[in-house]
Structure formats: structure tokens, C-alpha cells
Amino acid sequence: MPKFLFYSGTAFCLFLALTSAAAALHRVQSGQAVFIAIGALAAPVSTRAAWAIFVSLLASMAAAAIFIRMAALVAARNLFAAFVAVFSVVASVTSVVWILMLQTRMIVLMRAGVRDASLRSLGEMHLASAMMLGYFVSLMLLALRPYFRIQASRILALLVFLPLPLMLLILAQELFVSASPAPFPASSPALVVFFAVMAILFFGIAMHSVRHRYLFLEMTNLRELLDIRIDPSRPSQPIGGVAFDS
What we know:
By secondary structure, this protein is mainly alpha-helical. It has ten helices and no strands. The chain is 71% helix and 0% strand. The protein is globular and about 55 Å long. The two termini are 28 Å apart. The model is unreliable at 234-246 (pLDDT under 50).
């Protein structure tokens, strides 16, 4: 993959880790959430919000490239997991784009002074889209567990089990306990733990990408590096060589 895309994706993964940690701390301290750039829906809108949406669009594509590369590397070992990971990455990017388009429309309405049922309906769609994004990101991380188990640490391989059950628990709270006021899920211990786990995972992914950048920058497949059937007495093949034995 291109170097610019790799380094920007790694930087945005680190940024996601920091924002997830900040969101978890904010939930613990205040018990509520607001838009990072817009603030509360009742607050005036600044030009910072438009730039935040534009940067988020670029960040989602750069971070998705990192996970697509991981799926390509794990395809030699587990093709089904690679397909699920690619599907989840595409669905996650689609969810991010839809959320950002909703926020764009919210900004337009708020600048026009519209704060009636139209804004509330967009907020309800924003809440559902945020839940959808959390589900697909959790599924993506779980599908990439074979990659983390082989290439990364065992801690990351264990942590990827947590987001999906936590997301299902948050959904169960929405259905059976109490519905959240739009546009964000209500604060709960499960949501705080979800953000904390995401912060650890994305920080670990960013550090892993920098440490093993040759996996992303070179034409490499995971089987070439790890297949035990490769004879160790043979001369070492170049990174881009053919790894599949007959």
C-alpha cells in the first residue's frame, strides 16, 4: 500500500484511540455525550464543525486501508475471516459516511435556526447509525482475530472478543431497559467499557502497524512469513516472492 496512506492510517488509528479514551473519561465524569466539533445541539455552530467532518471522511478511508491490508494478509490462513473482515470494513466506512452526512445536514439546519422535529428526526437516525457503526467495527475486529493472534500480541487477540458482546449488551439495554435520547446512546457502564476497550485496541493497532510496517508497505502475504511447511534450510525468499507450495 502507498506510504502516505499507511502513515496517515496509522496516525488516524492513534487519533481514534485518544478520542475513544477521551469519550470514556467524559462519560464517566459527566454522564452524557456531545459532538466533538458541534457540541450540544442547542449550541451555536462554528466553522470548526465543517472541517471536522471533512477530516473524518479522509480519516475513515485511511484507517480502513490498514484493516483491508490486514484482511489481505490473513486471507492465506483463513479465507472466511478475510471475507468477513472486508465486508465489515466496507460496512463500517459506509456507516461513517452516513453518520457524517447526517451531521452535515444537522449543521445546515442549525445554521438556518431550525431546531424542531426535523432536527430531532435526524438525531434519531444518527443514534441508529452510531449503533450500526459500533456493531460493524466490533465484527471487523473479531474477524481479524487470526491476524492479531499470529502477528500481534495475545492481549490484542483476547481483547477483540470484547467489543461485540459489549455492543450487543448496549443494544439489549436499548430494547429492554430504557431507550436513549437521540443523537447518542445513553451513558452506561457497558458503553464506558466499550470505549475503553476500543482505545486500547486502536492504540495497539497503531503501535503494531509502526513496528511491522514492512507487512503493509511491501507485497507480502502472511503464509509466506508463517507457514511451517516452508523448508527453513532453503535460502530465504524475498518479501514479494511466491509463498504457496505445490
